[in-house]
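Record format v2
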Amino acid sequence: MYKTLANLEINQLAQIKTLDLDKDMQKRLNDLGIFSNVLIKCIFNSPFKDPKAYLINDTLIALRNIDAKKIGVKLINE
Amino acid sequence: MSKRIALIGNPNVGKSTIFNYLTNSKQHTGNWAGKTVENAQAKFVKNNEEYILFDLPGIYSLSIKSHEEKVARDLLIDSNFDIAVVVCDATQLLRGINLLLQVLELKENVVLCVNMLDEAKKKGLIINFEKLSKLLNVPVIPTEAKSKESLENFRQFLIDYQSTGLKKITYSKELELAIIKIEKNLNINNKRWYAIKLLEHDNDIIKRLNYQKDIDTKYISCFSQQLNNKSILITNQVLKRTKEIKQSKLDKFLTSKLTGIPFMIFLFLVLFWLTINGANYPSELLYKFFNFTQIYLLKFCHFLCLPNWLVNPLIFGIYKTLTWVVAVMLPPMMIFFPLFSLLENLGILPRIAFNLDHFFQKCQACGKQALTMCMGLGCNAVGVTGCRIIDSKRERLIAIITNSLMPCNGKFSAMISIITMFFIGFSTGLISTFYSALILIGFILISILFTFLVSYILSKTLLKGKSSSFILELPSYRKPKIIKTILVSLYDKAIVILWRAIKVSAPAGLVIWLFANIKIGDSSILSICSNFLEPFGNLLGLDGVIILAFILGFPANEIVIPLIIMGYMSLGNLTNFNDLLELKHLLITNNWTILTAINFMILILFHYPCSTTLLTIKEETKSIYWTFISFITPLIIGIGLCLLTNLIFNFIV
């Protein structure tokens, strides 16, 4: 089932499928290891549920929902 | 002959710590991405050979997006290094490998230093270094920033290093063909690397080569994707995970809706409380000591038969101002800076940015601004430089302009003395200092509120634009090396900032003394000036002397209060006072009311940035216009608020 990163439940593992971002943002995310097919997990919320903290390749990264919405993911059952 | 060694790495992997250890220098370190923003270099000598180390700002990759990444990459492209060390965090091996592969394409003699092995062990990560070295075909050295032995091993490795050539990384057939096609048009060294960057549509490189031909856009992220795949492949072969990563309890506590923001406020409350409490007694002691010394200094001067026209400005002008600044500033700084550095090293600050980003997003600003605001609490000039961590130019300008809305350490001492005198009475017990801290936090919250407000207004007017993205790493918590952090922050921040204040306060003390004692006709220059400024001061609920002190205090906020004292003393006949109680008496005889105290607090919070900060803003923005905006914005707020309170007060009374 396809979803965006922004509506991932806490601790739900997912695989990145699509990146619908401008060039600069894409490069920035690439730098942090965010490519298609990479595994990602939402670990916790900030007090106002935006931004959220995601775990990717052993690193915690904070992303705003508005950006996370542009990242399509496929849920993975552990 | 000297050897040149570059330290390259992702932000916050401990490059500066290694650099500091090897070269015995004192670069700032802190547990968050972007602490080092300029290239630093220093050397060590071993066996009569010189080794020059270059500590580059942290970069995620060699495709640049920010100022510090450009600084780092330009140095890499333009200089030759005998060794290029890629430093990586053992807990984030993949990203380290990824950067290493990119550097391999550009430079010869690349080695990988896997740092923070201790933390990897704690997280249950086991790395097979032998295999890693074999797969990458480069030397790999593990280090722990906390273990001297491993760092000495690393030093020995650098000394023994024998050079190797450039290593080629092969991409898929399609990409290789594309590279060859572009390479044909280039006539430079290392054209393969340039060709790849051109295919990635790297604007900086296109400009650098003045490349005018069309480039296919379909390969923009292919190279980095293939490198990443390669990195993942290698990582999976050498890394074993024995524990699952979950949200730490501390993170749960620091970022939850219920406890996150209250705890942050509480943390700063404790920080200020400790500062005020700890500084009280030493300040008093210093003050008594300086007063005591003054008597003997005077006696000594009379013993030397020095004329009064020389003794008076020296003692009552320079000495008095200088010692006040030292007595009031030194103790709080000695406590605040080390404590703050500990927070910084622990990794709390990025969580603050994470919690507050929601509000910054509403203001169309960047959450990283919270980090620069925190730095501003120490010194606004440092905060302004720190704004480089913000990638978008528009958002960086917002952060720079609003930085001086945060009170710096120089303002704290003034604010604390006024709070003690006018808001809570005099007992110095733990509880009353707690109230002081509480009131101080209150004023800082007002500062934060205005930061949001001004950021919002700027986003809607002068700096219109779309909110760009906010990507922030949340580093793992690290236990700081407590003693070292304290010593470094004392030396680096406290002493440097105190010295700057001293340099400014001596001449300022002299000027105000001359103002007070040189007479034109019947009245002194000081009374002429303060009389001239009096109506304006009254309009703000203040007086001419206070306004004059703010004007003369332009070089440093620390000297505003001593200048006020000097002013009052020279106008009246009081020549000395021993503690805050007598100071309060001095202020009250000069018609200070609670309104004066409140408005003074407002104006000390919001007036123009000090001269050092303004110069830094000029340097960072390269624009007189934005420097002016940064100058005028807090001033408008300060004057506006003072007018308002004065109006309300007069209406009620």
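Helices of chain A lie at 23-31, 65-68.
Chain A is about 15% helix and 40% strand.
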